[in-house]
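Attaching the record inline, Q. Sequence:
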Amino acid sequence: MRDGFKKRNTDKDEEINMNGEYPVISVIVPVYNTENYLEECISSIVGQTYPNLEILLIDDGSQDHSGKICDDWAKKDARILVIHKKNTGVSDSRNTGIERAKGAYVGFVDSDDWIQPEMYQALWKLLEKHDCGIACCGIQRFAEGQMPQSTAAQGCEALYTTQQALEELIRERMLHQIVCDKLYRADIVKQVAFPVGKRQEDEFWSYQVLAKSGGVALTDWAGYCYRQHDSSFMNSGFSLNKLSGIEAKQQRQAFIEENFPALSDLARTELFRFCIYCQQMTYRHLKGEEQIQACKVIADAVKSLKGKKLCAENGKQKLWLALEKVSYQFAAKLRNLLGVGF
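Structure, as predicted:
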């Protein structure tokens, strides 16, 4: 049952498990052409206060000096295993790391990001305290050329059942699609592969793993530090590639309807709202053949929702929903004209 955020009981936080031993946490880092940031990333993992790490650096066919940086670190730290492979993308790199991981728990770090020294210690304590499958922390975003602010692992906690956590994920409220701000029980992670060849791979993967979690514990302390690049996929302008989010949400909708029917209307509504957002972005950023292609993908998705129940939580949403049901294309143009975002 969701408790809401509560202050942590620090008197018990220093306890370890019943055997007096720390289980292995396997940290998986896909690496591809990030030589300018890789030293900082690896250093932040090596410097974790949690004492029993396995660090898997998956060199995904890097063409810069990233592979050598990984090898040099492996010579200095016996906890590091480097796997060099041909370039097949971040999903395949993560899957490779999961297959090789020996830990009882698994975490992911992107090779251009940075983690606070106490991140895995804090997340493991949450898992032990609440006996659940996933622990999640907050995210601190920092700009190119900056370093994140170091903070002590102090914050408030919340505990969610599986269904409550899925609701938070669907709403993108307390839980988000990103996988790197979390620590997972390994037996859960090993049941679900990342989709190779898909953009926005986290969206295809997160809800499936969360559904197997048996509950999610959160802290609002920002332990994961996300580097924002102007050229990154998440921060780049809208393109046809961003429409992979529609496919991910369609697959999630089918999964939710079969396994968590109480959340079906909410998930369907969020899929529809995402389609409206994509239509807005298509009108703003795409021209010619690209706009035609995008409009077709969106139209097909909206058509699949025709006649299905959608929900709104307040009067303003109800007005927009009524208009969008009549003509989502007109509604998208009007939202753009009024400067209404997603």
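The CA atoms of residues 116 and 223 lie 5 Å apart. The radius of gyration is 21 Å.

More tomorrow.
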